[in-house]
Fold this protein.
Amino acid sequence: MPVKDQQKPPPKTTAPIEDHKRHADEFLANEKYKVRPATLNERNDEAKP
Amino acid sequence: MVYRPPFIKQGDGSRCQWTNCNCAAHAMAAMRHRLGVDPHNEHGWPPKPAEIRNRLGACGGTNLPENDLAVQHLYGVNMVVRYNVPMADFRSLIISGRGAVVPIWYGVIAPTKYDASPGFTGGHGIYVNERRSSDGAYLVYDPMADHRRASIPQGPQWWPASLLQKAAERYPGTRAGCVHCSLTKDTEP
């Protein structure tokens, strides 16, 4: 049985800043988002002068 | 008011300047992270794209983790790299007091008034400093927006959230509605 993602939804934009800070700290502790996607070719290209 | 770093352009005449977008974006992020305060180490200050590039080596595209390591070594700035961050969470991270370097696909920006490199439609790196609550727009520092020609925007621009999301999720290897990002520490009380 797959494990459900227990992450809380982010606060609404009108929420107090403390709610966003708390959510941000919880989010950054989530291991799920530390994993680099295997398909990601994360290199920028050469821009035009 | 959120600290705003000075704009740092990538087209500074240094070697690799046109592949230095991530280096320039990380230079601005380093300024935000340290609130402009010189770490007083053996490296230069303020941060320069060329100094970050010299730490990385040969010209060519760069990625978030290697730039993170470079600014850590040069300026004592330890950024936090996260992948496929849902846009609602990204919004919360910015509101909470962090800046972020975000890879985007420039083909989305090219047809808009924010285009700072006519003809360029590839992968690019920008720095996002803050979000405006009145309309949800993000203050974006595009390292190419140096007004080197009259038609090219100058310095930080308020991008609609929908445009930032579209450009970020079009980056190859990104889930719909998500962004990859390298975040500064929370600098706001």
Remarks:
- DSSP finds one helix and no strands in chain A.
- The first helix of chain A runs from residue 17 to 28.
- The helical segments of chain A are 17-28.
- Chain A touches chain B at residues 9-11, 13, 17, 20-21, 23-24, 27-28, 33-37, 39-49 (CB under 8 Å).
